[in-house]
C-alpha cells in the first residue's frame, strides 16, 4: 500500500487478498453539482453572478450536471426552467428540504453563493440549516468578507469556514481576512476573480446614435441604486467638470435596490434629483431607471468614456460592474475600495485617495483633456480583462469542482488482517489510552473502561498462544476489575494517567458496555480460568442492568448476556437480561416507529445498529419471532438510511446525535461502521439473506475510503484508524475507540462472511512492504 500527499491510500493486493464485493456500487460517469444562490429572473448582483456561473460552467464542463437551488424572496424569484428547487429564504424547513434533496440527488459537490442579506435569520443564519445537513464537499464563494463583523455575522462565518472544503474569494484582501479574522486554513482558500464578458474592444458604441448623444463625453455608474453607491459624491463633482466641459453627460443606470424600494419607495432617488437641481447640473444627468439584463448592461458600459466607481465602503471586496467595465476596456476612476485597489493596480485605472468629489473632478478632467492617456488606460484595462474572462474563470471553477469531488471507484475488500502495531502502541501496563494526537498516544486524557472493554473483546479473536495478546487480556481484564465500585454497585469509567479514578461511577452506557465485554469473555476466552473469571464478574454486576434506562446500555448488556448464554445456556442472570432487554427494545420500537421512521427513537444517536442487533439476538435466543422480525426491519431501515445515493456508507454524524427525525452527516465515527458490520453479521446469521453481506461490506469499505470524502480512515499496514470523517476530510487523530472499531469490524467480516482463518498468532507489526501512514 502507498499513499500520496493528500493522504489517499491505494491498496496493492494480490488476487488472493481481494474478495469479490456483493452488489458493490459502480462508478458514475456523470458528476453532479448543486449550485445554490439567487438566480434569474431575480434582479440582484448575486442572481446575475450565479446565472453567469451556471451558463459558463456548463460550457466549460459538459460532463458536469448542474442542479440549481434558487433563493426565493418572492414567488417569481425562482421562475426559471433551469431551477431544480426553490428555497424560501425565510423558512427554515425549506433549507432542510433542499439539503435532503441535494443528498438524495447524489451531488458530488455543492457550490454556495454567500452574501449577507439573501438568507433569513440573524446575519442570514438560516443558511446553516442547509449547510449542516449536506454530505457532499462544500464550496462557498464569499461575496463579502467583513473586516469588523457583528457577533451574529462572526458566528455564521465561523460555521461556513468549518464546513467548507474550499472557500472562494475574489481578492487577496479576502484571503487575508479569512485567515486573520476568521481563522481559515490558507490551503482551504482559492482566489478566483469575478468573471467578465468576452467582447471585442469597442472604441465607439453604436448606442450613441440610437440615443442621440453624439460626441458628448459620457461618464457612467451602473448597478442597483442605494446609499452605498456614493452617487452623491459623484454628483457633487459635476459642477467643476461641467465648468470646463459643459456638454459632459453623467448616466446613472440602474433600478433602485428592491429592498430599499420596498422600505421607502423612490425617496432616495428623489433626494438625488433634488441635489442635482440644487447644483444646477440637471442638463448633465441622465437617469436610466431599470434593471438591465447582461446584454443591455454590457451595451450601456460600452457607451461610456469613463466609468465612475465612487463607492464609500472601502472594504467592499467585489464589484461586478467594475469588473465588467475593466473587461470592456473603459477608463475607470474609482475610490480606493478593496476590489478596485487589486483590479486596477498596475496603472489599469485611476484610484482616488478617498471618497472625494474634488478628486473625482480632477481625475475626469485629466482624462478628458488628454485623450491619449484615456486611450492608453482603456487598452491596459482591456488587456487586464482578458485574465478575468468567463471562459478562464469557468475553467478554474470546473477544476475546483474536480478537486473536491470524491473519487467514485469503490475500495477493494481485502482479507489481509490489519497489523497490531498501531493498537499495541496505545497500550501500557494500565490499559489502553483513550486518545491520540495524530498517531502519538495522548496521556493527558488517561483511560476509560469503554475502550478497555472493547479491547478485551478484540483480543479474544486472536489465536491462543499469542504471548503478547495473552498478556494484554490480563491487562484489560484487570482494568475492568479495578473499576468496580462495590459501594455503588457500578463500574467507574474514567481514570487519569496518574491512575486515579475521576468519578465514583460511570454512565449507564459504559456499564452496559462492560457487561457486554464480560459476557463476551465468558463465551470466547480461550482458557477455562478466564471464562470462569468473566462469568463471575458478569453475575456480580448483572443486577445493575435491571435499573438501566438508556436503550444502548440495555442493548449492550443484552449482547453480553446472549454471548454468555452460548457457553452457559442455563445462566439465570443472563437469561433475565435478555428477556427484559428484548421486551424493552420491542416496546420502544413499537412506540417510536412511524410510516417513514422505522426506528426505536425519534432521532438517531451513536452505536445505532446495536439496538437492532440486540433485538434480533433476543428474538433468536428466547425465541421470539416478533422480536427477531422487528430487529431485522429496524436494521434494514437503518441500513437504507445510511446508504448514500452513490451507494457508499453514510452514518449519522456526531453533530446529529439526538436531532429529532433528521440527518446530519458529520462528523462520521468509526464506531458506527463497526456497529453496522456486526449487526449485519447477526442479521445474516439469522436470515441467511445476502443483502446483509452487501450492507456489511458497504460499511467496511467506509474504512478504506469509499465514503463521503473518498479518503481512507483505516490503514491495514499499521492497524491505525483515524478518529472520524469531517466536512473537510479526516480527523487525523488516532484514538483507541477508532482503532478498535477498525479491528473489530474486520474481525466481524472475517468471522461471518469471508470464511478465512483467524488472525495469525504472530501477526507482524506491519504487513510486508506496507508502510504505516504518517503523522
* Cα shape: elongated
**Mean pLDDT rating:** 90
Q: Low-confidence parts, pLDDT < 50 over ≥5 residues? A: 1-27, 761-775
User: Strand pairing plus helix content: what structural class?
Assistant: alpha/beta
**What is the count of distinct domains?**
3
Number of strands: 24
What's this entry about, in short?
With 775 residues, this protein is of the alpha/beta class. Helices cover 45% and strands 13% of the residues.
Description:
The protein has 775 residues and is an alpha/beta fold. The chain has 3 domains: 21-195 and 398-404, Glycogen Phosphorylase B (Rossmann fold, 3-Layer(aba) Sandwich), CATH 3.40.50.2000; 207-384, 3-Layer(aba) Sandwich (Rossmann fold), CATH 3.40.50.2000; 419-754, Glycosyltransferase (Alpha/alpha barrel), CATH 1.50.10. β14, α11 (320-327) and β15 form a beta-alpha-beta unit. α19 (508-524) runs antiparallel to α20, α23 packs antiparallel against α24 and α24 (625-641) crosses α25 (670-687). The longest helix is centred in the last third of the chain and has 21 residues, at 572-592. Mean pLDDT is 90; it is low at 1-27 and 761-775.
Which structural traits does this protein have?
single chain, 775 residues, alpha/beta, Rossmann fold, Glycosyltransferase, 3 domains, seven-stranded parallel beta sheet, six-stranded parallel beta sheet, 27 helices, 24 strands, disordered N terminus, disordered C terminus, Glycosyltransferase involved in cell wall biosynthesis, transferase, Glyco_trans_1, glycosyltransferase activity
Amino acid at each position: 500500500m502507498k499513499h500520496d500527499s493528500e493522504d489517499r491510500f491505494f491498496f496493492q493486493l494480490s488476487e488472493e487478498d481481494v474478495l469479490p464485493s456483493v452488489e458493490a456500487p459502480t462508478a458514475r460517469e456523470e458528476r453532479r453539482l448543486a449550485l445554490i444562490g439567487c438566480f434569474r429572473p431575480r434582479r440582484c448582483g448575486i442572481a446575475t453572478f450565479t446565472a453567469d456561473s451556471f451558463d459558463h460552467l456548463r460550457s466549460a464542463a459538459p460532463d458536469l450536471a448542474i442542479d440549481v437551488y434558487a433563493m426565493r424572496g418572492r414567488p417569481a424569484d425562482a421562475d426559471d426552467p433551469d431551477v431544480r428547487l426553490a428555497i424560501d429564504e425565510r423558512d427554515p424547513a425549506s433549507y432542510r428540504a433542499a439539503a435532503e434533496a441535494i443528498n438524495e440527488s447524489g451531488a458530488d459537490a455543492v457550490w454556495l453563493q454567500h452574501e449577507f442579506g439573501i438568507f433569513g435569520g440573524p446575519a442570514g443564519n438560516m443558511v446553516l440549516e442547509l449547510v449542516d445537513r449536506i454530505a457532499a464537499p462544500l464550496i462557498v464563494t464569499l461575496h463579502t468578507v467583513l473586516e469588523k463583523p457583528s457577533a451574529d455575522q462572526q458566528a455564521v462565518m465561523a460555521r461556513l469556514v468549518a464546513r467548507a472544503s474550499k472557500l472562494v474569494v475574489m481578492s487577496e484582501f479576502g484571503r487575508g481576512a479569512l485567515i486573520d479574522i476568521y481563522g481559515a486554513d490558507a490551503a482551504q482558500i482559492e482566489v478566483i476573480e469575478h468573471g467578465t464578458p468576452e467582447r471585442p474592444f469597442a472604441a465607439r458604441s453604436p448606442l450613441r446614435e440610437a440615443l442621440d448623444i453624439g460626441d458628448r463625453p459620457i461618464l457612467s455608474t451602473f448597478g442597483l441604486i442605494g446609499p452605498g453607491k456614493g452617487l452623491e459624491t459623484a454628483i457633487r463633482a459635476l459642477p467643476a467638470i461641467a465648468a470646463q466641459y459643459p456638454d459632459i453627460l453623467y448616466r446613472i443606470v440602474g433600478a433602485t435596490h428592491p429592498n430599499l424600494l420596498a422600505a421607502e419607495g423612490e425617496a432616495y432617488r428623489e433626494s438625488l434629483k433634488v441635489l442635482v437641481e440644487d447644483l444646477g447640473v440637471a442638463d448633465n444627468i441622465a437617469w436610466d431607471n431599470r434593471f438591465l439584463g447582461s446584454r443591455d448592461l454590457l451595451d450601456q458600459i460600452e457607451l461610456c468614456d469613463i466609468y465612475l466607481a465612487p463607492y464609500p465602503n472601502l472594504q467592499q471586496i467585489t464589484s461586478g460592474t467594475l469588473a465588467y467595465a475593466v473587461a470592456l476596456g473603459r477608463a475607470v476612476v474609482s475610490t480606493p475600495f478593496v476590489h478596485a485597489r487589486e483590479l486596477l493596480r498596475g496603472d489599469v485605472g485611476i484610484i482616488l485617495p478617498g471618497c472625494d468629489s474634488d478628486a473625482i473632478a480632477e481625475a475626469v478632467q485629466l482624462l478628458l483633456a488628454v485623450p491619449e492617456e484615456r486611450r492608453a488606460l482603456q487598452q491596459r484595462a482591456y488587456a487586464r480583462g482578458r485574465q478575468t474572462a468567463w471562459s478562464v474563470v469557468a475553467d478554474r471553477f470546473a477544476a475546483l469542482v474536480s478537486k473536491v469531488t470524491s473519487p467514485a471507484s469503490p475500495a477493494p475488500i481485502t482479507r489481509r488482517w490489519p497489523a497490531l502495531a498501531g493498537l499495541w502502541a496505545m497500550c501500557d501496563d494500565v490499559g489502553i489510552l483513550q486518545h491520540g494526537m495524530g498517531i502519538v498516544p495522548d496521556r493527558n486524557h488517561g483511560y476509560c473502561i469503554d475502550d478497555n472493554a472493547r479491547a478485551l473483546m478484540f483480543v479474544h479473536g486472536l489465536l491462543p498462544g499469542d504471548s503478547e495478546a495473552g498478556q494484554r487480556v490480563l491487562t484489560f481484564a484487570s482494568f475492568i476489575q479495578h473499576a468496580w465500585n462495590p459501594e455503588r454497585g457500578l463500574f467507574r469509567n474514567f481514570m487519569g494517567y496518574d491512575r486515579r479514578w475521576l468519578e465514583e461511577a460511570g454512565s449507564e452506557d459504559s456499564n452496559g458496555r462492560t457487561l457486554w465485554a464480560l459476557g463476551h469473555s465468558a463465551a470466547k476466552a480461550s482458557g477455562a480460568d478466564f471464562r470462569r473469571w468473566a462469568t463471575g464478574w458478569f453475575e456480580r454486576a448483572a443486577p445493575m442492568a435491571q435499573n438501566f434506562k438508556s436503550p444502548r446500555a440495555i442493548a449492550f448488556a443484552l449482547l453480553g448476556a446472549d454471548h454468555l448464554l452460548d457457553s452457559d445456556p442455563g445462566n439465570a442472570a443472563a437469561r433475565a437480561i435478555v428477556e427484559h432487554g428484548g421486551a424493552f427494545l420491542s416496546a420502544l420500537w413499537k412506540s417510536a416507529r412511524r410510516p417513514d421512521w422505522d426506528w426505536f427513537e425519534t432521532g438517531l444517536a451513536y452505536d445505532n445498529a446495536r439496538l437492532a442487533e440486540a433485538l434480533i439476538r433476543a428474538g433468536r435466543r428466547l425465541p421470539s419471532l416478533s422480536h427477531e422480525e422487528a430487529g431485522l426491519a429496524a436494521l434494514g431501515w437503518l441500513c437504507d438510511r445510511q446508504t448514500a445515493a452513490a451507494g457508499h456508507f453514510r452514518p449519522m454524524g456526531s453533530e446529529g446525535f439526538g436531532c429529532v427525525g433528521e440527518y446530519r452527516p458529520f462528523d462520521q465515527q468509526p464506531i458506527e461502521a463497526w456497529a453496522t458490520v456486526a449487526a449485519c453479521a447477526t442479521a445474516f446469521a439469522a436470515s441467511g439473506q445476502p443483502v446483509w453481506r452487501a450492507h456489511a461490506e458497504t460499511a467496511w469499505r467506509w474504512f478504506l475510503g469509499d465514503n463521503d470524502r473518498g479518503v481512507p480512515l483505516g490503514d491495514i499496514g499499521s492497524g491505525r484508524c483515524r478518529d472520524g470523517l469531517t466536512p473537510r476530510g479526516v480527523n487525523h487523530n488516532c484514538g483507541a475507540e477508532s482503532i478498535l472499531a477498525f479491528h473489530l469490524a474486520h474481525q466481524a467480516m472475517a468471522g461471518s462472511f469471508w470464511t478465512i482463518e483467524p488472525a495469525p498468532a504472530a501477526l507482524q507489526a506491519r504487513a510486508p512492504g506496507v508502510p504505516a501512514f504518517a503523522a
